[in-house]
């Protein structure tokens, strides 16, 4: 008997799930009513209609045979409880997010039942392991329109992610309109990797993304990566940047991936990193950053601003330390919590509230772990994004036409799943970890179909690392269980418009 015949297909794995195969299921029909919380009812109705074509009506009060959605005290933030019986379904949660996540679980439980649809008899208690559960989308290397970003939000929210990190600026282009610095989009937004068209989000576009994310219980974390990754800034404001530092490392990347060497004042369309830098000792640089982060803070209701700080190979160690101290303090003074990539941990004077984002390997190299430990020593926390596990742009197999392999790649689904956040960095325990984030860099990606091909099913593995109990501590939290549950969810993902890639690890259900 397969696992899927015993364990309903839910990802991420709940804290507890009891099912009774002998008990009758709840049958969905045109007369089904969703009662209770209006926002959660709207979310659940959308899920059910997308999956089945049935659009349940909403009632403010409970009615017989209804799917009841209720706020109930008790339990941690974002938690929920579900009881499914033949006659009714009861979903309770202490907050709106918990009801939303319970609705996502009900959508995953939905299955074909002859010519109709049903939800099996189950009892679920669930809560997230980590407070921060993110996905990152790089819109700088290739630009993606608002509708694509919203589609990615849908995919992530369905897996209980609650943060969208947008990488809004890099050497190849600047992607968000700012009234304080209009030349950034007038001059520096038109290019992408490989000579593809660029683009940018107007302030209205950005507001639409933020509002849509909020409707799916996700915050937006905007990133302006400094002091490196700033060649595009120099197109608009050349007085703020240094000349490109053309190391042998840069030349090797150009030889491997093609394109031209970066040239001052010329849009950069290649894939090299680490050659650019802002001018660290010029006060005009900090005036610029005050404008950029100040305006972005006003456009972003979430608590975080990401300042980058990675791969600043064109900046000396001393200058980097001075710069990161100033920029993280600047963001903190805006009443936002700064986030920086783990390299910033080498900088003395870093604002003590700064959250570190670790992009190093499952087995740290080159002092990555020591830099990451700085954030915990400062009394702050880490976001774990091990590149050789959950960088979703790494090739999933050697034959993949998309993706890169620099992070010990290709990265199989099994490797993406079989790691645990507390096992990466010595001395970093559960309390030191704010959460988990799965980045998607887009040097080789141009469309939503490309994004889906790289994200699925590894994004589901990242979701389980972020939400579920530690690996191996529950029957569902194992590799064999996960691969079967992932395969069984194929109909759910297809109903969302995802074209699932061929996989050596997963047999996709046709149901």
TrEMBL record:
Taxonomic superkingdom: Bacteria
Active-site residues from the entry: 311
Organism expressing this protein natively: Microbacterium rhizomatis
Protein name per UniProt: beta-N-acetylhexosaminidase
GO cellular component: membrane
GO molecular function list: beta-N-acetylhexosaminidase activity
Family from the record: Belongs to the glycosyl hydrolase 20 family.
Residue span(s) of domain Beta-hexosaminidase bacterial type N-terminal: 8-127
Catalytic reaction list: Hydrolysis of terminal non-reducing N-acetyl-D-hexosamine residues in N-acetyl-beta-D-hexosaminides
């Amino acid at each position: 008997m397969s696992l899927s015949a015993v364990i309903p297909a839910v990802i991420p794995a709940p804290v507890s799930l009891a099912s009774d195969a002998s008990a009758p299921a709840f049958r969905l029909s045109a007369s089904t009513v969703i009662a209770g919380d209006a926002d959660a009812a709207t979310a659940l109705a959308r899920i059910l209609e997308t999956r089945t074509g049935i659009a349940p009506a909403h009632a403010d009060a409970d009615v017989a045979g209804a799917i009841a959605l209720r706020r109930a005290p008790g339990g941690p933030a974002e938690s929920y409880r579900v009881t499914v019986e033949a006659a009714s379904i009861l979903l309770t949660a202490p907050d709106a997010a918990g009801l939303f996540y319970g609705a996502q679980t009900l959508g995953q439980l939905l299955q074909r039942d002859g010519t109709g649809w049903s939800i099996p008899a189950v009892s679920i208690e669930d809560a997230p392991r980590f407070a921060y559960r993110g996905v990152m989308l790089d819109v700088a290397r290739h630009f993606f329109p608002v509708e694509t970003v919203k589609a990615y939000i849908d995919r992530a929210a369905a897996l209980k992610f609650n943060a969208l990190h947008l990488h809004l600026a890099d050497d190849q282009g600047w992607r968000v309109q700012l009234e304080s610095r209009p030349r950034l989009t007038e001059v520096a937004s038109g290019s992408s990797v490989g000579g593809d068209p660029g683009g940018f989000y107007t302030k209205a576009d950005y507001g639409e993304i933020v509002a849509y994310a909020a409707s799916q219980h996700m915050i937006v974390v905007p990133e302006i990566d400094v002091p490196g990754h700033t060649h595009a800034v120099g197109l608009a404001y050349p007085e703020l940047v240094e000349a490109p530092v053309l190391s042998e490392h840069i030349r090797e990347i150009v030889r491997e991936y093609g394109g031209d060497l970066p040239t001052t004042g010329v849009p950069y369309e290649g894939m090299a990193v680490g050659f650019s830098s802002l001018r660290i000792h010029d006060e005009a640089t900090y005036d610029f950053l005050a404008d950029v982060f100040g305006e972005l803070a006003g456009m972003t209701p979430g608590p975080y601003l990401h300042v980058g700080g990675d791969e600043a190979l064109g900046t000396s160690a001393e200058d980097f330390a001075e710069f990161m101290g100033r920029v993280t303090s600047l963001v903190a003074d805006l009443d936002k919590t700064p986030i920086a990539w783990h390299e910033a941990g080498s900088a003395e004077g870093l604002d003590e509230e700064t959250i570190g984002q670790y992009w190093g390997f499952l087995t740290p190299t080159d002092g990555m772990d020591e830099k990451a430990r700085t954030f915990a020593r400062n009394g702050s926390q880490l976001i774990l994004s091990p590149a050789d596990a959950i960088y979703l742009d790494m090739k999933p197999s050697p034959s993949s036409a998309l993706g890169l392999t620099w992070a010990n790649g290709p990265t199989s689904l099994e490797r993406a799943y079989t790691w645990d956040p507390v096992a990466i960095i010595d001395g970093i325990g559960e309390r030191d970890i704010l959460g988990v984030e799965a980045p998607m860099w887009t040097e080789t990606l141009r469309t939503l179909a490309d994004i889906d091909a790289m994200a699925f099913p590894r994004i589901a593995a990242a979701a389980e690392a972020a939400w579920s109990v530690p690996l191996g501590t529950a029957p569902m939290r194992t590799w064999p269980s996960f691969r079967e549950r992932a395969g069984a969810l194929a109909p759910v993902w297809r109903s969302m418009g995802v074209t699932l890639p061929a996989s050596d690890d997963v047999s996709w259900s046709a149901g």
